[in-house]
Each structure stands twice: as structure tokens, then as C-alpha cells.
Amino acid sequence: MVVAETGRLYLRRFNVDDAKAVFLLNSMPKILSHLPGSPLRSVEEARQVILNVALPTYAQFDYGRWAVVHKQDERIIGFCGPKYLDCYNEVELSFRYLPEYWGQGFATEAAIAAIEICQEYHLAGIMALVLPGNHEYEHVLKKIKMYETKRDHYLGYRVKIFHRLFDH
Is residue 119 classed exposed, middle or buried when 0-12, 13-18 and 19+ CB atoms within 10 A define those classes? Predict the structure, then answer.
């Protein structure tokens, strides 16, 4: 199910056939170097994440992390989307991309589309969590008009918290 389309991308819900792509996005050390959590160990583990996290999240909230598909080659190049975080009682916008697609504006393009969708859900705003040193991530957040509001700890890591409020 396509949820948004941009000039070069479309965002859609993940499905179980995307397990290999989810594994790549969650196992490459270069991608995970500035992210909390442990890498996935197998495609089957990625499949379980889709079944036990992504699909139930879509069912509960009608939104979640979406696959970002590059139109030119029909390849999943990353993910982008909102996720409700109980510990903050807020919706977090997060994204992740394969390294060969970094620095080409895809993160900003998809994030802008995701924000437009988030506004349709009448959310008060969105937040983002960033590990210190992830300057590229911060750069994208600033381009989409998010601002650092405080620092905290999340999953045992120090994080910077960015926010963007929505006008309704």
C-alpha cells in the first residue's frame, strides 16, 4: 500500500516479502554506527520484526515506519516514518538509508512526505531522537524545520531530542 509519492520515491507499508531489505537496513555496521540497539542477525529475524512490530503498528495507528522505494530501480533504499513512543507519549519521526543513497537528498525528500502524512493524523507535532555525533541526521532534521529542544537518555544512550509542532 503506497502512502506517499515524491518525484523520485514512494513510501509504502512494509510486508513480509521485504525481510531481506529490513535485514540490510538493520545489520550493516556503517548504517548502525550512530543508532541505538543491536543489529539483526538474520533475514528470518527481520521477517519477525515485520510480523511482530511493523504490521501490528500499522493496525493500531494506521501509520508506522514505511519502506522508501527508489522509483528508478524499484529498490527499497531505506525507511522513513512515524512511530509512537510510549516512554515520551509522542510520535517520533525516524529514517534510515542504505549508504549508497546517502547525500543525495532522499532522506529530506521522504521526511517531507512523511511530515505531510503525519499532519493528516492531526498530531500536535513530531519528535526525533539523535545520538550525539550523527551530524547528517541532525542536518536533515534542521532542513525539515525540526529544532533541538532538550537532551535525555533513551535505551541507555544519551540523545538529543528534536521537535516540530504542527499548525492545524
Answer: middle
- Amino acid, single-letter form, for residue 80: C
The b-or-e profile of 47-57 (16+ CB within 10 A means b, else e) is bebbeeebbeb
Q: How many residues are given for the chain?
A: 168
d(CA 90, CA 107): 21
Q: Which of 48, 79, 81, 88 is nearest to 62 (CA)?
A: 81
Decide: pTM greater than 0.90: yes
DSSP secondary structure, 91-121, as one string:
EEEEEEE-GGGTTSSHHHHHHHHHHHHHHHT
Closest alpha carbon to 54 in 95, 76, 83: 83
Q: What is the pLDDT along the chain (168 residues), one digit of tens a residue?
A: 899 999 999 999 999 999 999 999 999 988 888 887 789 999 999 999 999 999 999 999 999 999 999 999 999 999 999 999 999 999 999 999 999 999 999 999 999 999 999 999 999 999 999 998 899 999 999 999 999 999 999 988 999 999 999 986
